[in-house]
Write a structure and sequence with these properties.
By secondary structure, the chain is of the alpha+beta class. About 30% of the residues lie in helices and about 40% in strands. It has an 8-stranded antiparallel β-sheet with strand order 1-2-3-4-8-7-6-5, with helices on both faces. A hairpin with a 2-residue loop joins strand 7 and strand 8.
Length: about 180
């Protein structure tokens, strides 16, 4: 089963479990880059557990920042990472992915980041900076994701990304994932 299928299945189940966010990983709050995030949604399937965290205030569908944690069971780190790379390449060809970068941190951990934009009729609706860490733990993979979005002022947000990307990625790489219990 591909990571896309796992995530799609989780998001489809989102509609069924909007009011219930079960804490699977022993962490209901996270602080990252000076922002506090609260657990707002989770899903448990046969092959994965997923939790989403957003700051207090924004809705789940109109968030500006979101952290997600995925525990994917019995999957290959290399396969999941290659699927993500194919997805990013396709997005780049479609014009949605503006740029992406990968880094192999060690034999069990890979990180990637990308900037994307969603347009409609030539107007930019959303600009997003995303970072992913993929961590092999035995036969499982942990995926840690951070998204930062802007729904207006696309050009100024792109400048903000360029100005802060290095700082954001350093903090993301150093984030201590041991706060989660898998």
């Amino acid at each position: 089963m591909s990571i896309k299928s796992l995530i799609l299945g989780a998001f489809l189940s989102y509609g069924l479990s909007l009011s219930a966010a079960t804490d699977f990983f022993g962490c209901q709050k996270i602080s990252f880059l000076g922002t506090d995030y609260n657990l707002v949604w989770s899903a448990n399937t046969n092959n994965s557990k997923i939790e989403d965290f957003i700051p207090k205030g924004p809705s789940y569908t109109q968030f500006e920042k979101k952290l997600s944690v995925y525990h994917l069971k019995n999957v290959s780190l290399e396969k999941i990472f290659m699927e993500k790379q194919a997805e990013l390449e396709n997005g780049k060809q479609d014009g949605q992915i503006l740029e992406f970068k990968n880094a192999v941190l060690n034999k069990n951990e890979i990180m990637c980041s990308y900037t994307s934009e969603l347009t409609q009729d030539g107007a930019v609706l959303v600009v997003q900076f995303s970072s992913f860490r993929y961590l092999r733990t035995g036969s499982d993979v942990i995926v840690f994701e951070w998204q930062h979005r802007a729904y207006k002022e696309a050009e100024s947000f792109k400048k903000k990304i360029e100005k802060n990307k290095k700082k954001w990625l350093e903090a993301f790489e150093k984030f201590d994932l041991s706060i989660f219990k898998f």
